[in-house]
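F.,

This is the one I mentioned.
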C-alpha cells in the first residue's frame, strides 16, 4: 500500500491536523492518506488535502521524504510532498483539530513519527 502526505507552509508555519482515528489517532500529522487504486500521487494529494482540510492543492513543489513501515503485516511505502494550497481551512471527521505551527511549537506537540524532521526540510532545504 502507498500513502502520501501534504506539507503546507504559510508564513513560516506548517499545517498539521490532529487525527481522530487510525494508526496515528490523537497525534498531530500532515494531511494525507492512502493512494486509491488507479490514482496518481498528485491526485491522492489533491483528494486528501481537500477531504481533510478543505484546501485546494495549487502546486506540487517538491518531494520532502520517502519512508516505509509495517502496518498490520503490510508493507507501507509513503512519501511527503511540499505543496502550495490556498483556501479556507476547515476540518472533517478524520481530524479533531487543524492548526498552523512554527518549528519551535512542534517540539511541544505529540506528533506522528518524522513530522519535525520533515517540517525542517520543508522550511529550510531547497
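My design for it:
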Amino acid at each position: 500500500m502507498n500513502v502520501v502526505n501534504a506539507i503546507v507552509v504559510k508564513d513560516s508555519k506548517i499545517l498539521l491536523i490532529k487525527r481522530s482515528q487510525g494508526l496515528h489517532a490523537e497525534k498531530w500529522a500532515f494531511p494525507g492518506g492512502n493512494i486509491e487504486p488507479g490514482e496518481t500521487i498528485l491526485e491522492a494529494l489533491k483528494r486528501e488535502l481537500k477531504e481533510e482540510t478543505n484546501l485546494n492543492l495549487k502546486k506540487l513543489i517538491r518531494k520532502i521524504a520517502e519512508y516505509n513501515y509495517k502496518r498490520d503485516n503490510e508493507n507501507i511505502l509513503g512519501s511527503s510532498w511540499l505543496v502550495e494550497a490556498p483556501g479556507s481551512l476547515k476540518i472533517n471527521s478524520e481530524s479533531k483539530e487543524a492548526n498552523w505551527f512554527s518549528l519551535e511549537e512542534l517540539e511541544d506537540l505529540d506528533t506522528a513519527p518524522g513530522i519535525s524532521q520533515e517540517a525542517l526540510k520543508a522550511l529550510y532545504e531547497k
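The radius of gyration is 13 Å.

Talk soon.
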